[in-house]
Amino acid sequence: MIDKAEEPGRTILDVQGLTVGVGDTPTTVVRGLDFSVGSGEIVAIVGESGSGKTMAARAVLGLLPPPLRVTAGAIRFEAGPGSGSGARDVAALPPAALRKIRGAEIGMVFQEPMVSLNPSMTIGRQMAEGLKLHTRLSAAEIRARIIAMLERIRIPDPERCLAAYPHEFSGGMRQRIMLASVMLLKPRLLIADEPTTALDTLVQREVLDLMVELTRENGTAVLLISHDLGMVSHYANRVVVMQEGDAVETGLTRDVLSHPQNAYTRRLIDALPRRGPAAPEKAGGAPLISLENIVIDYPGRRTLFASAGPKRAVDGVSLQVAAGETLALVGASGSGKTTLGRAIVGLVTPSGGEIRFRGTALGDRTDAAAKQRRRDVQIIFQDPFSSLDPRQRVADIVGEPLRLEAGVTAAERAARVRETLEEVGLGPDFAARLPHQLSGGQRQRVAIARAIVRRPAFVVADEPVSALDMTVQKQILTLFRDLQARYGFACLFVSHDLGAVEQIADRVAVMENGRIVEFGDRDDVFDRPQHPYTRSLLDAAMLLDRTFARA
Amino acid sequence: MGRFILARLATAIPTLLIVAITVFVLMRMVPGDPASLMLGDLAEPEQVAAMKHRMGLDEPIVVQFGVWLGNVLTGDFGHSITTGQAVLPLIIDKFRISATIVLIAVFFAVLIAVPAGMVAAWRQDRWPDYTVIAASTLFLSIPSFWLGLMFLLIFGLKLGWLPIVGYVPFSENFGDALLAILMPVGTLILHESGPLTRMARASTIEVARLDYITHARAKGLSEPAVIWRHAFKNAFAPTWTMIGLILGSLLANIAVIETVFTIPGLGRLLVDGIYARDYPVVQGCMLYIAFVYVAVNLLVDLVYPLLDPRVTA
Amino acid sequence: MIATAFNLPRLRVNRVLGGTIVALLIAVAVFGPYLAPYDPLALDLKARLQGPSTAHWLGADEFGRDVLSRLLYGARTSAWIAFATVAFSITLGLAIGIAAGYFRGWTDRLLMMVNDALLAFPGLLLALGFMAVFGASRWGIIVALGIAYTPVVVRVVRGTVMSIRESEYVEASQVMGNPEATTMIRHVLPNCAAPVLVLATTMFGWIVLSESALSFLGLGVPPPAPSWGNMLATGRPYIGQAPFLVIFPGLCISVTLLGVNMFGDALRDWLDPRMAA
């Protein structure tokens, strides 16, 4: 753990008064940013969307997308011995000199492993490119180094990997390959722009640990850009907190997190998931939703000449959810949790087993009686951008479910819509807006309103906050809990984010490869995990409380 | 990869079958029966009946189709009503002429359009971009036959530099052949460069905003290297598909160019056949052109994985 | 977001110029016959092949007919044929495309097999084939071009419907209990509108071009009724003596296509960011 102040060593990167904007217009995305990175240090820039952290990182390498450019300030970088004397201002360098620094002295790793490797070029060629450009090694030596590095990052069969294409690897492996390819050149500074945001919890941990290993070995300093305060608390020596272009607080990670000076920093820390209150003892009685031995198979891909076998997404799962309780379903992508959630609302038909609601089988979606029952079971999707019809106004979106209710007049409908919108914290002036006029958090509120407008007994929430900023996440989760308290609906909370789960769940079920591997009260699962998979998940989760509890 | 090839080939077969059925049905919709058409208006009823029997027209329609298809697959496309020649050799002969013009034109059009489109995209919203967009929109709006007529007027009639009629095969006289095809090819090059440039530009813009381009720059590569080594292959893929479509559509649309410049190619054969109600010729041309189009697109699809390896996954 | 500020100049040019030309075309198509100084079919052999003059602003053709009047009537012909064909193709294409894209399975496979086969006929080929069978006539052109272009519409609609179908708001509609028909009409159809609108505009240009080409080949609008295409065909033998006979109709086609293309570009740019937001 890195929470002791490291010996500062030389300053490699010294940014002073960096301002990034659009030419002569007053628009700026970064204003007067000051920070420095010493050799061997890991410095993190933390902020939510719109904070300017990504643009600050790009400015260091002169990679700002036009029309943005550095309008004021200096970025002094001290290249290694043998490449010129002293520190030079990157922002003022001519293109040829800048190109010499890129890759060789400063390396950069990007966020989305899907698009950051060229899909039509083999891995070998891409990894060799940097070496060919900046060193005078022969082809054979380059090849040898690449293979050695691939072995180092534990990629199976490195020889074959050289001739393979990016799409043949998983997201985590691609990110490791990208790290390796950048570190081959042993740069003095590594800029990592949200390197693990698109990855699963366990994989995130792997990639970050690898990053620390490789940079330590080569004496590379790291500038880490992230929105994840939890992750930053585990890995960074010092942190810079940015809000809307300004640096609002800087200092040693430990200091900033335990004694934040700035109001925004405090809000960010506050937004970190904390354990919610323990669930009250629930009265006994029949469970609201009961799943018995659910099996869900996806048909295999059938091409003209080969038939892949069916994939088993859910392998014999049995669960019960009592009225009013929140059951969290946790697991990595591919564990089957989303599929299970979708099966309960009828978007996927189980290949085996039964789903019962209040004792009766939920049955087919087309069965008339089943339709009635299904009204009481609703869903909130993950992506607030695609779950709302871009052509419908908010009032129509929220009111649509009421149209199916017999005997509700238009006036009654409008009244209920108004009421529900208020409950989710959206005033009446939101009713006439279109989705693209709303922020992510506001859209998710609309989605919640739509799901509860008919006061269902059960709601499946499929990663409802994963796509949102940290402060917004907290607001939405709190709202959700409040609504639950008021209306008493039960919830299946599907998520890979253990922080959110810790905050909101009464009981937790952990899924791996289509099976439930652990199940119990939230506190039990989090404090005394039984199954090794659960333990590794919790370990990798980088929850803030734990660090501080240990320190 | 082999599976991909086989799968692609397999989907072409039902397509070709339906194409054949469509052509067959279309030609049978002509008022009057093929026998009287062949013999002309003055034929006696017994002659017509005899001819009908000889042509197998008294068999059920499905059998007729089977027989016809069988003939087609063995290369017998029937005989022209007007000249009596065998249709398929006639088509192949004319096809050689049309294909020469089309291939040369598309080749040069691509050579101009792709760099132009890529440069425009890389310098988006600056003067090179505006010029390229304006030029390509202009060229795609001017009908090819009118462009040809204007060329004919200026270079053929007014200036007298180039011959206004006819086609000379390269095997005969290289110099004359070149002069003869200069205008038709030139017209097509300008006309086809319009859509090709726009496609090249649009796909380059798409690619340019992806992270692997920024990553390439972050490695220290110079701009030309980034464009050539990283952007090109990925941006070229959609343009490659479009080339297949253009080659195909030119096979039919070349009729107008051949009319303007009086070139005895496949297009003219088809149109003249329609005027003369020479249905075997019309049928044969339609079949042949459609088949070639399917083959061209198949080839384009088979090359595609070289540009984008994700396709065979 | 900042970049769109820089798109303004191009967008404005497209919108203004394109829109003006399209508006002009529509105006001429509707009011042309009232503005035409002569009857387009009226012969006047004394004025044969006369160049532009005060009597005939754009000259007279080989039968002494006034070129300007014929161009105006030709505008109406081309516009009307194009509208009718686009309406035909889009309606048919929407129906087939939505059925294929929404219901998938065997419906989709069958429809696509036929569609792909029709798409195997490049460019004008299918239309030429139809004209061969039915002979040159206005309705013939509308049906021939309509059927030739429907497969393209089907492709676009099907693609759009398939991607809309996967979106979560369609799933939300299903989960809330809406019958399939309601989901299709309330959610899928309106979201298809934008791409279909852009396609319709582009197609309009293609059809004007195709009709001109067919008429130029003598397989389109039959003379003596004027169409820009057939005016080019009949004027061609006189290209040496009276080049204006060939210059003006082609100019009209080019300007129309330019306007329609620019308008289509502007439309697409305008619809795009709003949908993407």
The computed structural class of chain C is mainly alpha
The major beta sheet of chain B can be summarized as: none
Average pLDDT figure of chain C: 83
Principal-axis shape of chain C equals elongated
Beta-strand percentage range of chain C: under 5%
Q: How much helical structure, as a percent, in the residues of chain B?
A: over 70%
Structural shape of chain B: globular
User: In DSSP terms, counting alpha (H) and pi (I) runs of 4 or more, how many helices of chain B?
Assistant: 12
Specify the CATH homologous superfamily of chain C: MetI-like
Low-confidence spans of chain B: pLDDT under 50, at least 5 residues? Answer: none
Note the run of SSEs of chain B as H and E. Answer: HHHHHHHHHHHH
Write down the Rg of chain C. 22 Å
Mean pLDDT of chain B: 85
How many structural domains does the protein architecture of chain C include?
A: 1
Low-confidence stretches of chain C: 1-8
Straight-line N-to-C gap of chain C: 10 Å
Number of strands of chain B: 0
Describe the structure.
The complex is a heterotrimer of chains A (551), B (313) and C (277). Chain A is α/β, with parallel strands linked by helices. Chain A folds into three domains: 1-105 and 190-195 and 221-270, Rossmann fold; 286-299 and 310-376 and 459-551, 3-Layer(aba) Sandwich (Rossmann fold); 390-455, no CATH class. Chain A is built from 20 helices and 20 strands. In chain A, the strands form four sheets. Chain A has a six-stranded mixed beta sheet, sandwiched between helices. In chain A, helix 7 (201-218) links the parallel strand 7 and strand 8 (221-226). Chain B is mostly helical and 313 residues long. Chain B contains twelve helices and no strands. Chain B is globular, with a radius of gyration of 24 Å. Chain C has a single domain, classed as Orthogonal Bundle (MetI-like fold), CATH 1.10.3720.10. Chain C has nine helices and no strands. In chain C, helix 1 (2-35) crosses helix 9, helix 3 (105-119) packs across helix 5 and helix 6 (168-175) packs across helix 7 (180-216). The chains are: A alpha/beta (551), B mainly alpha (313), C mainly alpha (277). At the B-C interface, helix 1, helix 6, helix 7, helix 10 and helix 11 of B face helix 1, helix 3, helix 4, helix 7 and helix 9 of C.
